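Q: Convert this sequence to C-alpha cells.
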Amino acid sequence: MKTLNLNTTTFKIDKKLIRDRKDRLEKVKILLKQDFVGIDEVIDNLLDYIQIWYLMPEILSRPIIVCLWGMTGVGKTDLVRRMVRYLEFQDRFAEMELGNSDDTTFFNSVGGLLSQEGFDDGKPAIVLFDEIQRFNTVDGNGESVAKTKFSDFWQLLSDGRLPKRGKDQIEEYVAEYMLTQRRKKRKAEKEKEQEGEEDNSYDYYDREIGLWEARNLKRVLRLEEDVMTLAEMTHYQVIELVLDATNDKAVYEPVDYSRLLILISGNLDEAFHMAGQTAEADIDADIFHAFTKKITSVDIKHALTNRFRPEQVARFGNIHLIYASLRRADFERLIRQEVARIITKTLERYGVQLTVGDNVLQLIYRNGVFPVQGVRPVFSSVVDILETHLSKFLFEALQEDLDRIVVDYDNTHKEIVANMSGLHRHREIRLPFVGRMDKIRVNVQEEKVLNVSVHEAGHAIAYVALFGLAPLQLKSRLADSYAEGFTFPHEIYLTRDSLVRKIMVYLAGGLAEELLFGPGNATIGRSHDRVMATRLTVDYIRAYGFDPNFQANYLQDGGYSLDIRATDRAVEHMIADLVAQTRQLLTDNQDFLLDLSGRLAGTGSLEAAEVCALARMYGLEVEVRAEGYLHLPDYTAMLKR
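A:
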C-alpha cells in the first residue's frame, strides 16, 4: 500500500481495492451492453469517463460532469439507473429535475436537495439532473428568463462548492428551533393537564426528537451523527448538540461536493432536427441513425446556446455523450430480445414451449418502430401484437393439455395463426388481425397512391439524373395521414451548381404530374416543394451573390438591408427558367418516369438498389451510396488540373 500527498493531506492507496473496482467497472460494462441495444459506444465512453471518480475519488478537486444528449426513448435515464444499480450506489444516488415553475419541488436550491439526500458529507455520490432542457435560462427570443430557484446549480457545476448559510441565518434557525420546542413542550403539558393526569415526572424534553427534525438538524448544522442516531436522541441531548454546533466554525464553511459524479441528461431538438418527426414510421431507421451520427459536441454546444447563456454553456463542460437514433438492426434485435423474454416466461410459468415465426417479428417492426420515438413504441407493439393474442392461445392450450405453440402471421389472409400440439393432439387457431399502421397504409385510396407515385418518381428521376445518386428511400404509401410520400436524398454540400440542381429536384414532382396527368390534374402536393425551391432561389440571388447582376447581400440584418424588390424579377425569371429545364429533363426520361411510377405504385416503396437497377436499364449513370454520405465536388482533382 502506497501513500499519496494531495494538498498536505495524505491518502493511503489500496491497490487491491482499486483493482477490485476496476474489475467491477468491466463487469458493469458487460452487463449494460446486455441490457441495452445499439448504445455500446455510449456505454464504453460513460464507464471510461467515470473511472477516475469510481477508482480514486479522493484525488478529485471538482465534480466529474458527464452530459447525455439524445432523442426520447434511446435509454439515457434508464442507462444511468441501471449503472447505479450495478455499481451498488443506490443509497448514494439521486435524480433531480430542475424546472422553472414554482411547484417543481419544496426546495429552492440545489444545495437544499443535495443536503436532503445527505450528500454534503464529502463522500462520493451520483446525481442525475434529468430533462435539463426544461431549466432554460434563455427564451425563444434570446432573452434571459428570470430565475427564482436553483440558481446555485451553476456554482455547483463550476467548482463543486456551495456556500453554507450565514452566521445570522444559522442563529435565526437555532432560535426558531428552540422557540418551537418550548411551544411544543407547553402544548404537551397542557394536553396532559386536560386529560387529568398528574404525572410530575413527565418532561417533554425527555422524548425523542423523531426522524423529521433529525433530518432538518443534520442538513442545516452539518452534524456528524447519522439521521437515525439523531432521531433517537432526546430534546435535552439535541439542544446541547445544537448549541455546540453553532460554535463550530465548520458550520459556516462552503459545502464541498467535489466527489460528486454529476450526470446531466436532456433532449435538444435544436441539435436533433429530426426529433419532431415523431409520427414517422416509414423512413428507414438507418437513415435517421446516419443523420444523428453526424451530430458532434460542437452542434450540442450550439444548441445549448438557444436555451442557456454562454457562460452557463461553458459550465456543462466538454464531456458530451451523444446518442444516435437506433438502426434498423438495433430495433430488430430489440424485438427478438423481447420475444425471447416472452418465450422464456411462457415456459417457466406455464410449461408451454413457444415458437414465434419471422412474420410476427416483421409485423411488430412494421407497426411498432417509429425511429424518432425510440424503444417505447416497440414494447407497446409487442404487447399489442404478440402478448395479447398469446394469452388467448395459452388459455386454450392449458385447457386441452397442449404443451407446444407455434405462432406466426398469415400475410395473405391477415391472420395470426397458432398451431398448438401435445401428445397425439393438434389444434390450429386463427385470429384476424391487421396492424395499426398497416391498416392506415391499406386504407389509402389506390388512385391517390398512383398520383403520389408519379410525383415522387419525378423527384427521384431528377435526383438520379442531376446528382448520379439513387435516393435512399422512395415511398408513396405511408402510415401518416399528414404526409403523402417522400424521396429521401443524401446530404448535399451546397455550391452554386448543387443549389440549382436541388431547386430542379424540388420542382420535378409537380411537373411530373403535369406531364403524365395533364396540367389540369396536377395537385397541390407541390406546395412545400415550391416553398423550398423559392427559398433556395432567393438565397442564390439575395444572400450568396451567385447571380452576377446582384453582388450585394440583400438579406443583411441590423438596418443594412437593401431593397429586396430589386431582385424579385430575377428570382421569378430564374425559377421559370429552371421549370423549363426540369420539364425537358422529365420529357427526355418519360419512359423511365412511367416505369418507375408504376413500380412504386405497386409496392408503395422502393429501395435505392431497386431504383439504381431500373435507372441503368434506361441508360442513366447512377450509384448507390449509404446513409450518411456527403455529396460534394472533387476539389482535390480540380486543384491538380
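The longest strand covers residues 415-422.
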